[in-house]
């Protein structure tokens, strides 16, 4: 019995031809052109990925910056005061403000915490004073 049939030997010869090194210069130049195109596309995709990561990092810093951009001395709680006859926002602010804070700034805090639209207060009003 024969070890290889005629069909098999023909098949193996054709198979070897298909997997052999490219014979013509045209086949080689097409392969080089395809390889260069693939490398160029990969570089562009790599650049796009890098740009996307850069944009995400910058936007992350912007979000974190906005979160921590608040005042260093945030309002911790509030104190309530009943306005007596003759009291003004200035006198109430002088009595209750922190030592290193400007009185005008503390008055704005009182107005904000109490929901006042102007400087007018009357005896009996209850004011919310910010505590820093």
Describe, in plain words, how this protein is organized in 3D:
The protein is mainly α and 132 residues long. The protein has two domains: 1-70; 77-131, LysM domain (Membrane-bound Lytic Murein Transglycosylase D, Chain A), CATH 3.10.350.10. Helix content is 58%, strand content 9%. It has four helices and two strands; from the N terminus they run H-H-E-H-H-E. The protein has helices at residues 6-19, 25-67, 89-96, 103-114, and strands at residues 77-82, 126-131. Helix 3 packs across helix 4. The longest helix is centred in the middle third of the chain and has 43 residues, at 25-67. The protein is rod-shaped and about 115 Å long. The model is unreliable at 15-19 (pLDDT under 50).
In total, the number of domains comes to 2
Query: Strands across the major sheet, in which order?
Result: 1-2
Structural class: mainly alpha
Estimate the global geometry from the Cα principal axes. Answer: rod-shaped
What's the structural blueprint in terms of helices and strands?
Elements: H1 6-19, H2 25-67, E1 77-82, H3 89-96, H4 103-114, E2 126-131
Antiparallel strand pairs: 1-2
Helix pairs in contact: 3-4
Kindly summarize this structure in a few lines.
By secondary structure, this protein is mainly alpha-helical.
Core attributes:
single chain; 132 residues; mainly alpha; Membrane-bound Lytic Murein Transglycosylase D, Chain A; 2 domains; two-stranded antiparallel sheet; 9% strand; rod-shaped
């Amino acid at each position: 019995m024969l070890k290889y049939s005629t069909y098999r030997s023909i098949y193996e010869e054709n198979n070897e031809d298909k997997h052999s090194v490219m014979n013509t210069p045209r086949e080689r130049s097409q392969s080089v052109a395809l390889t260069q195109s693939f490398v160029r596309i990969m570089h562009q995709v790599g650049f796009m990925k890098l740009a996307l990561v850069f944009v995400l990092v910058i936007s992350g810093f912007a979000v974190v910056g906005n979160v921590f951009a608040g005042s260093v001395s945030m309002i911790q709680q509030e104190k309530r005061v009943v306005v007596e006859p003759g009291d003004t926002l200035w006198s109430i602010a002088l009595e209750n403000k922190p030592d290193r804070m400007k009185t005008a700034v503390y008055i704005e805090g009182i107005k904000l915490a109490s929901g006042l639209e102007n400087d007018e207060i009357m005896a009996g009003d209850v004011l919310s004073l910010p505590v820093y």
